[in-house]
Structure formats: structure tokens, C-alpha cells
Design goal:
The complex is a heterodimer. By secondary structure, chain A is mostly helical. Chain A is built from 13 helices and no strands. Chain B is an alpha/beta fold. Chain B folds into 2 domains: 222 residues, P-loop containing nucleotide triphosphate hydrolases (Rossmann fold); 102 residues, YebC, transcriptional regulation domain (Alpha-Beta Plaits, 2-Layer Sandwich). Helices cover 37% and strands 27% of the residues of chain B. The chains are: A mainly alpha, B alpha/beta.
Chain lengths: 279, 334
């Protein structure tokens, strides 16, 4: 019976999401403008003097991607997954404020269902957002005057599945942390303060925006373990067929990411259970 | 009659020193409407929180339908319906979607969910609004939806925390009538908290008066009124600078006198019978009288009798107090 309760709560979360179209559009505006403005304005090839360099040099810096925009736009998919995760816990605080959380906690359901349904809804939102960002970047390639995403890999169905699992894992990892935080904190101000504290350091210590070959050594090490980087590595290897530029295969990165996500989700579920205990 | 709810020395202490509920003990029989009556902050919601497994008792124990609320919380939750003070319905879902969600959370079989939800929508007169989002509902409609959601799994015991709080008189009457109908037709056991005296009086089979976390009295409304010991004559002098308790105590037929907020409460078996003598004694003592009233005992009197203070003292100025203040402000008072 737990499955039905889980599905009912997940469906509720998604219904609330699709019934607030302004929220959906505004969530997509940030990566859209990054792609439209930042991605178009920042000509890394020129900055690094790669315009007349052999393609192999550019490929080595962009880890197999044909140009900076292609490299960057896949990173933007990681960016939207991170942001979807960071904001996934806000509705827990609103649910507590508006009283709807009481209905769930008074019901005879495992606390993990309350947590898991929200994480699952976050993952579905993240995968949809990630796919839309991919689609926008691909569309740009067909619009005059715009740089766009050029796929050079031939990953097939398995590669596409790896990309979807990577998107799901990154969103699940950050959603679970911030949903647990939503259960632990009662103040929306504290929640958003922490979101602001976390988002830029996680983003800039990942490979989402810039090639890590340009990073200092210590930051390279941080970036290598950043879950956003792991997810983006899986997507880039598959999108550009560039396994030769990476020390590990996409499947190995994905295995590490999924394992890390599983550990974080279990810990966050336990924290949520603890926060919902009768006091 | 079997016992459906039992509390034995139930105590809740928040932090180190805030005792919200203090050694509360009572029993609620099967099919009974049991009311917890008290002002804001008396411990009503905390007691309900412990009985519905949301709060862990600090001491004591309680059972609902024979199940311990601390050690068998999940099983208790399956056997009860809870209507909280605040709305728990989801504003972004329709009335029907809210009920379907409640049915899923309480394990109503999939095949019977549709008919059960429709039955409740019809019963609570929400059929026409069932496809509208709850954000468009009035306060009364929201309360009806809350009660409908709490009944979706046909629980034997219903807990209602201030079920009519904030509603207009018409909506309050409607909710009260629904509770009566449910009790009559389905035989649910009700535990409700309220700070409306008239509601407790008209709805409840038995009432527990709770104040500062302790139960001061338990009984049927009639029993409690009888305990007050007769009629109450309230005399308000024009000036409150002299204590006239002794003057009124000496009036023949007066069983007792208490002085509260500038008024004297005289208890007597027949209130009307002592009024002439009491007025005479006051005038003889040079005490000017502003008002004299005779009342059969109400729960107001019961509350005063068992707690030593007027029911509304914790609730800010009463309507009468405001009227006096306005009069003074306009220069019509002292």
C-alpha cells in the first residue's frame, strides 16, 4: 500500500508544479539567459587564442566538445539540475506554514514516503528542465547568429539513458539535502540564506561553466568530486563521444554519482524521519 | 459502554519548565461526544496533539481504541480522523483531488475511493464545488472539506480541534449540525476542543473544563451546572472602592458571595427571591447599584466556579468592557 501513498503524494507535488506555470517559466529563464547572453558573449576560443589553433587543441581543453558553447551548454544542464535541487525544499516550509504538512504527518504512512515523494517530484522536474535546456541549446544551433550545441557523440539509447540517470541523480542528491533542510528548518529566511550560500560555490567549483584544465590544482580536486561535475562528465562523454579525454568512462562516473546519491538520500531520509518524530 | 479514549496522568512539558498539560486523566466512552473546554493556551490542543500521536507525552499514558498512542502510533493514526484548527487542505488542488489524496493516504481501497469521495462530497454539500480549486472556497466550505477528508476512511474516532473557529454564526451552526448528524447516523466517538461555551453546551455529552493545563471539572453540562449550586445573582455597584462582600453575605438566602472585577456574585437556590433583600442591604450600606441580574447557571458560571476567574479574562476585553471603555472615552463614564 505504501506505493499508492507514495504515488499519490508525488502526483500532488507535480500537479501543484504544473498549476503554477509562472514558476516553471521563471525557473527556465535563468538557464535560457545564460545560454542566450553568457554563452554567446563569452568567446573562450578567442580568449585562449584557439581560433586558428588545430581542432585537437580546442578539443583537449573542452574535453572533446567541438567548441566552448557546446561544452558550456551541457554544463548548463548540470546548472539547472543543481538549482532545481536547491529550491526543492522550499515548498516543505510553505506546506508547514499553510498547514498542509499536518495532513501528511497525521496520516498512517511511513515518514520516508513523505520525504521520498518530494524527492521524486524534484527529480522529475529536474529531468524535464534538463531536457528543455538541452533542447534550447540544440535549437540555438539552427538559429542564425547564435552559437548552439553541436553533438558529436553516437551514444545511442544506452548513452541517452546514462544522461537521464545522471540528471536524475544530481537532482536527487541536491533535492534530498534541501528537502531535509526544509523539514529541519522552520524559517524560510534561513532556508534561502543557505541556498544562496551554497549555490555559487557548488556551481563555480564544478566543471559546469569552465574547463577544469584551467583551474588551479586544489580546485581541480574539488571539482572532480563535485556531484555536478560527475553528472556533467557523464553527459559530456555521451554527448561528444569523448571518452578518450577522461580518465574514467561515463559508466564509471555514473556509478560513483549514483552511489554518492544513494548514500546522501539515505542519510537525508533518516534526518527527515528524525525531524518528523513526535516531539 | 466500552472506553474508546483513556488518558491517565497525561503530562506534556515543553523544554525545561513549560507545563502545557499537567496530569490529565479522563475516559471517553464509545459513541460519546466529549468536549475539552478552555480558553486559549489552556492545554486543549496539546492534549489533542498527544492523543493523535503528533506529540509525545512527557509522562502518563493514553490509549485510543485500546491502542497506546506512544508505542502504537501508526495503528492509532489508522483508527482516527483528525480535523486540525488550521486548514490542511491543499489550495492548489480541487476539493475532489484533496479527498482522493486523503483516501490514498489512509489506505481506502482503490475500487471504493471514487464512490466514497462522491458520497462525502454529497454529504457535505460540496458536489457543485468539487472540481474547483480549494483556494476559491469560503471558510465554511473549507471546514466541511476538512471534516469530509477526516471521514474518508470511516474512522471510529474523530478528533476535532476548534472545528468552528473563525466561522460566521451560520457556518458554525452548519458544522455543529453535521457533527450531530454524524454521531446519530454513524455512531462515531468525538473528542473536540472548543472555547465556545454554547458549542460545548449544545454539542457535548460530557465536558472537561481545562485551565492552565489541568482538568478542573468533568461532567455532563447539566451536572456541571448543578455543581454551581443554584442561581447566580450578579450585582455591580456604581463604585468599587468599598468591599461589600460582608453586606451581601448577611442577606438571608445567600449561599455564598464572590467578588470579581468589580461585581459580586451571589449564589442562591432561588435568585429572584433574594434580589429585594440584597438591593435593600446595599442601599442601607450606602452602596449605589449599577446593575442587578439573575442567571440560571451557564457554563460561563461553571468556568468561573471551577477556575476562580471569568472565562474571558484571558481573551482580552469583553464586549461589555469595550462598551464601557467607549463610553468613558466619550466622556459618559467616570
Amino acid at each position: 500500500m505504501t506505493v499508492r501513498e507514495f504515488l499519490a503524494l508525488t502526483q500532488r507535488e507535480l500537479l501543484k508544479w504544473i498549476r503554477a506555470p509562472i514558476g516553471i517559466v521563471s525557473s527556465l529563464m535563468l538557464p535560457f539567459f545564460y545560454l542566450l547572453l553568457f554563452g554567446q558573449a563569452l568567446n573562450f576560443g578567442k580568449l585562449l587564442g584557439l581560433v586558428h589553433a588545430p581542432p585537437s587543441l580546442a578539443a583537449s581543453i573542452y574535453l572533446g566538445a567541438p567548441d566552448y558553447f557546446s561544452y558550456f551548454s551541457v554544463g548548463m544542464v548540470g546548472f539547472i539540475m543543481l538549482f532545481t535541487g536547491l529550491f526543492a525544499g522550499a515548498n516543505v516550509i510553505f506546506a508547514r506554514r499553510f498547514g498542509t504538512l499536518k495532513k501528511e504527518t497525521a496520516a498512517p504512512i511511513p515518514r520516508e514516503v513523505i520525504f521520498g515523494s518530494r524527492v521524486t517530484a524534484g527529480v522529475i522536474r529536474g529531468v524535464i528542465f534538463g531536457s528543455v535546456v538541452f533542447a534550447i541549446a540544440l535549437l540555438f544551433a539552427h538559429l542564425p547568429g547564435l552559437n548552439g550545441l553541436t553533438l558529436t557523440g553516437h551514444a545511442g539509447v544506452l548513452g541517452a539513458a546514462e544522461i537521464v540517470v545522471a540528471m536524475a541523480s544530481v537532482t536527487a542528491l541536491f533535492s534530498s539535502i534541501f528537502i531535509a533542510l526544509g523539514f529541519l528548518t522552520e524559517q524560510i529566511e534561513s532556508y534561502f540564506a543557505l541556498v544562496n550560500l551554497v549555490n555559487l560555490p557548488v556551481l563555480f567549483s564544478s566543471n559546469a561553466l569552465f574547463p577544469t584544465s584551467l583551474f588551479p590544482g586544489w580546485l581541480k580536486n574539488v571539482a572532480a568530486w563535485n556531484p555536478v561535475s560527475l553528472g556533467v562528465d557523464v553527459m559530456r562523454e555521451n554527448a561528444f563521444g569523448s571518452g578518450a579525454y577522461y580518465p574514467y568512462t561515463a559508466a564509471e562516473y555514473l556509478g560513483l554519482l549514483v552511489g554518492l546519491t544513494a548514500v546522501v538520500v539515505v542519510i537525508m531520509a533518516a534526518l527527515t524521519r528524525w525531524s518528523l518524530r513526535p516531539k | 459502554m466500552s472506553i474508546t479514549i483513556e488518558a491517565d496522568g497525561l503530562t506534556k512539558i515543553f523544554g525545561e519548565s513549560v507545563t502545557a498539560v499537567d496530569r490529565v486523566s479522563f475516559q471517553v466512552e464509545d459513541g460519546e461526544v466529549f468536549g475539552f473546554l478552555g480558553p486559549n493556551g489552556a492545554g486543549k490542543t496539546t492534549t489533542l496533539g498527544m492523543l493523535t500521536t503528533g506529540l509525545q507525552p512527557t509522562r502518563g499514558r493514553a490509549t485510543v481504541d485500546g491502542l497506546d498512542v506512544s508505542t502504537e502510533a501508526a495503528r492509532v493514526r489508522r483508527r482516527i480522523g483528525v480535523i486540525f484548527q488550521e486548514s490542511t487542505a491543499d489550495d492548489d488542488l480541487t476539493g475532489r483531488e484533496n479527498l482522493r489524496l486523503a483516501a490514498a493516504l489512509y489506505g481506502v481501497p482503490v475500487a471504493s475511493t471514487g464512490p466514497r469521495v462522491q458520497q462525502l462530497l454529497d454529504l457535505f454539500q460540496l458536489g457543485e464545488a468539487s472540481e474547483r480549486r480549494v483556494k476559491t472556497y469560503s471558510g465554511g466550505m473549507r471546514r466541511r472539506l476538512e471534516i469530509a477528508a477526516s471521514l474518508v476512511h470511516t474512522p471510529p474516532v474523530l478528533f476535532l480541534d476548534e472545528p468552528t473557529l473563525g466561522l460566521d454564526p451560520q457556518a458554525r451552526a452548519g458544522i455543529a449540525q453535521m457533527i450531530r448528524n454524524l454521531r446519530k447516523e454513524d455512531g462515531h466517538t468525538f473528542f473536540l476542543t472548543t472555547h465556545y461555551l454554547d458549542e460545548a453546551d449544545s454539542l457535548c455529552d460530557r465536558i472537561a473544563i481545562i485551565d492552565h493545563g489541568q482538568i478542573r471539572a468533568i461532567g455532563t453540562p447539566s451536572e456541571l451546572k448543578e455543581k454551581v449550586g443554584g442561581d447566580v445573582v450578579t450585582i455591580t455597584p456604581t463604585h468599587d472602592d468599598v468591599d461589600s462582600t460582608a453586606t451581601f453575605s448577611n442577606v438571608p438566602g445567600v449561599l455564598g458571595v464572590t467578588r470579581t472585577n468589580g461585581s459580586y456574585r451571589l449564589k442562591a437556590l432561588r435568585g429572584e427571591g433574594i434580589v429585594p433583600a440584597a438591593v435593600g442591604a446595599a442601599l442601607a450600606a450606602g452602596v449605589g447599584l449599577a446593575t442587578v441580574s439573575v442567571k440560571r447557571p451557564s457554563l460561563d458560571e461553571v468556568f468561573l466556579e471551577f477556575t476562580g476567574r471569568a472565562y474571558r479574562e484571558d481573551e482580552g476585553p469583553s464586549a461589555t468592557d469595550w462598551a464601557v471603555r467607549v463610553q468613558r472615552f466619550r466622556g459618559g463614564g467616570r
